Automatic annotation (TrEMBL):
UniProt source species: Caldithrix abyssi
GO cellular-component term (any): plasma membrane
Keyword entries, A-Z: Cell membrane, Membrane, Transmembrane, Transmembrane helix, Transport
Descriptive protein name: ABC transporter permease
Main location: membrane
Family to which this protein belongs: Belongs to the ABC-2 integral membrane protein family.
Top-level taxon: Bacteria
Annotated ABC transmembrane type-2 domain residues: 139-346
Topology with respect to the bilayer: Multi-pass membrane protein
Annotated GO MF terms: ABC-type transporter activity
Keyword DNA damage: no
Compartment(s) of residence: Cell membrane
InterPro entries attached to this UniProt entry: ABC-2_transporter_component (IPR051449), ABC2_TM (IPR013525), ABC2_TM_bact-type (IPR047817)
Positions of transmembrane segments: 20-41, 171-195, 221-243, 249-272, 284-304
Amino acid sequence: MNRTFKSIVRKEFLHILRDYQTLIIIFIMPIIMLIMFGYAITLEMRHIEVAVVDHARTPQSRQLLSHLQSSDFFVIKAYDPPESQFESLLQKRQVRCIMVIPADFSLSLTGERFTPVQLLIDASDPNAANFIQNYFQKISALFNAENNPQFKFPFEIVPRFLFNPNLKSEYFFVPGLIAIIVLLISALLTSIAIVREKERGTFEQILVSPVHAYQIILGKVIPYIILGFVDSVIILLIGHFWFQVPVHGSILLLLATLILYLLTGLSFGLFVSTITDSQRTAMLIALLMTILPTILLSGFIFPVPSMPVIFQYISQIIPATHFLKIIRGILLKGIGLWELKAPILY
């Protein structure tokens, strides 16, 4: 019986190694997804097109423009366009905002409490408009500190950012991408395990062989556990060395929880494999049932407490919701088993 079980495991390994599509799913697809989404999904805006109108033309106004140009946030696309073209520039998306420096800018800096500078922002994308406003406020705060130090606010908030001092969006999104990709790949791998046997007509031969049902299941799953674990470690290494995501916590705890999470994905894929009759249908169901809920409801992008109450309850069913807390907690905060007991038990 032990030899039969080993034969099933060996047979599944041979199936995988001879199927180039499965090998692509295991080794190529996760790397491409992590690199693509790691760069594409970000909370930052760069190279925002801006038009400037400098009515003052003084050293102070040129210094403000120099601050604007030296930042990574803005690219000046137009200088001193006529006022009649402002609306056209924004409508055609040639620029995202227009800054108008008044003629009395330098005099107002030395003699007035506030120095207004007009900023026209394309708010068709409200999130982008908020980012642009915040970036300009940072530049204006730096400029005021250099040129208008005598005017002080009653108090000043001095923030100290913990766990991600440089506010890199990669630190937030890459661990989330790892959770999504691991769940997706593990579900995809086993979703075609039994269906492939059905399509080839070999599943009936396995059923009439002198083995128990649990041996068939384990023989099918064990190769994918090993390959899925190797795949997960590769993804973690890319996240750490390519995207510079730190690892402040226990590697052993991370790998142990990763195996539990991997088993969850493999179990779901195996369930899909038993209720479908074609590999295409199995892969489609696995994709829809892993990617959409994981991206939208797990807290990967949108905070769970901000969702409607019904979706907050639904999010608790999604494995990635709890693994995101685990992987971000271990990688970024360095927390241990005791602090993570609740999401691990879920």
